[in-house]
Write a structure and sequence with these properties.
1 helix, alpha+beta, 4-stranded antiparallel β-sheet
Length: about 80
């Protein structure tokens, strides 16, 4: 399967039930329609671009800290 290059031109073949069918060269794939740029509709050409970004920070440390702060110790009561 060909990976869409940054700035690849895609054809919006169809939009149905919240899904958009896109065509890149001779390949077709489906994405949520909400990912399309504003104004895109069936028959539109769109330039698809993206970039790799770091993962968002995890809230795990803050959650553990809050849980530890609220914990009075002692046995668990179920």
């Amino acid at each position: 399967m060909t990976k869409p290059a940054a700035g690849a031109l895609l054809f919006v073949d169809a939009i149905e039930a919240g899904l958009a069918r896109l065509v890149l060269d001779d390949e077709t794939f489906t994405v949520p329609a909400r990912l399309l740029p504003k104004g895109a509709r069936e028959g539109s050409w769109i330039r698809w671009s993206g970039r790799v970004v770091p993962a968002p920070p995890s809230d795990a440390a803050a959650i553990r800290k809050r849980l530890a702060r609220d914990d009075r110790g002692g046995p668990l009561k179920l």
